[in-house]
Design a protein that fits this description.
about 240 residues, 9 helices, mainly alpha
Length: about 240
């Protein structure tokens, strides 16, 4: 299950909506502003942006895993129920400032993650219903789009006041992402390979194969996770 969660936070379904919509919006703004127009330049920019983004995000994820193992796991802490427990791992380094250091990190992460998560939901829902979308739009011109962002933010605040365990909710949301990713990857490859849908610029064959391999890996992880849940019950 933890492997499914790690994969789910690496190949996150919400990124399929967020990044694709953001890249399309930025490309449109660049063309409208006569800033180096042309599909070849846009593809190069998107490729560089994607490679650097994935490199930094995965390096950071590896460091998080290693430092957690070197602090919490070494101390015998394998079950985290509150943020305060996680903050205690910083005590050998930060002493009495451990909580403040952890709080700064959590707030910084939230400032980065909340707009992306709420924004991806707004893009997905608005595009599904044919509503006007885009962060370049004013709130008056895209009321439904910004309404979804506001609703997603409000829902996150309400969860804080509920009885839902936030740590367990984070874990299960990652697991769900791991299960949902496979069909979405297949859909992206199918659409991306369609020359008509891609306006004459389908994704290269090698990327289709890499995407297919990633899809198979995600399917395998989902199957093994399901088996791990069923096997103890069967015994």
């Amino acid at each position: 299950m933890l492997v499914a969660a790690i994969f789910g936070t690496t190949i996150s379904p919400y990124l399929f909506f967020w990044q694709a919509s953001q890249e399309a919006e930025e490309a449109g703004l660049a063309s409208a502003g006569d800033a180096e127009p042309g599909p070849d330049w846009q593809v190069r920019r998107i490729r560089l942006d994607s490679w650097l983004g994935m490199l930094f995000s995965n390096v950071i994820a590896i460091f998080i895993i290693v430092t957690t193992a070197a602090t919490l796991n070494v101390a015998g802490t394998t079950q985290i129920d509150t943020a305060a427990q996680a903050a205690e791992a910083l005590r050998p380094l930060a002493g009495d400032f451990a909580f403040a250091l952890f709080a700064v990190g959590i707030i910084g992460t939230g400032m980065l993650a909340i707009p992306v998560l709420a924004g991806s939901a707004a893009y997905a829902v608005s595009e599904a219903f044919g509503w006007r979308t885009g962060l370049a739009q004013s709130a008056g011109r895209a009321k439904a789009f910004y309404g979804v962002i506001a609703a997603a933010g409000l829902l996150g605040v309400l969860v804080h006041f509920s009885s839902i365990d936030p740590m367990r909710a984070l874990l299960w949301s990652a697991v769900v992402n791991g299960f949902v990713a496979a069909p979405l990857i297949a859909l992206v490859i199918w659409l991306g390979s369609d020359s008509e849908a891609m306006n004459g610029q389908p994704i290269p064959r090698r990327l289709q194969l890499l995407g297919g391999a990633a899809c198979l890996v995600m399917v395998g992880v989902a199957i093994m996770t399901t088996v791990s849940w069923i096997a103890p019950t069967a015994r």
